Amino acid sequence: MSPFQALYGRPPSMIPHYQLGSSPVNEVDQNLASRDDLLHQLKLNLHQASNRMKQIADSKRRDIEFNEGDLVFLRLHPYHQQTVFKRASQKLAHRFYGPFPIEKRIGKVAYQLQLPAGSRIHPVFHVSLLKKTIGDSNARCPTLPPLTDDGALIIEPAEIIDTRWFKKEGKFFEECLVKWKNLPVEDATWENAAELHDRFPDLNLEDKVPVKVGGIDKPRRTHRVSRPNQKYLD
């Protein structure tokens, strides 16, 4: 069915091909002949545009297949399908939700998903709306550290990993790399030693500082090293 027939309910009237020389009037004959040439060129342009649109659409298609039991993410339409996930902000909502397991395959390009209970949408989706889950789906996040009533972390130092000295405004300060309890090593932070001792008076920093192998003696200077005057550095 053509778009014309879908809109008006009847097929469009056919324009017969004009035979050159059918009209005794020369101007009418040339006008009808040019009309046929124009119609032929329009059909050619429409065919080329249709092929171009098909090539662009095919370049974005993905030849992806899933198996039963695979976990996939589902892309939901913005401002719709609220029964699957409640969105606090439609503008800043996620593009994909899940993961959801695949129950079975429907045809060649559709899959039925196991959606949460209470979802009032059809569970069959096109493959273009799905994205495969990467990584271990059975991984679980570690237990969160305890929180105060205000939502602040209750953390205590577990050990001192390293120490360092830094200079600020002409004075030297000591910092400690603190490994906190119930937190991974990647979350260790550098803290001021004096402030750390004030916050945790029972913490013995000297016993927890790792001892480095070697002496503290430095090689003797064979020549005098000139240093700039401090008053010109301020």
TrEMBL record:
Gene3D superfamilies: 2.40.50.40. SUPFAM superfamilies: Chromo domain-like. Residues 156-203 form the Chromo domain. It holds the Pfam family Chromo. Residues 69-133 form the Tf2-1-like SH3-like domain. InterPro entries: Chromo-like_dom_sf, Chromo_domain, SH3_Tf2-1. It comes from the Eukaryota. This is Uncharacterized protein. The lineage of its organism: Eukaryota, Viridiplantae, Streptophyta, Embryophyta, Tracheophyta.
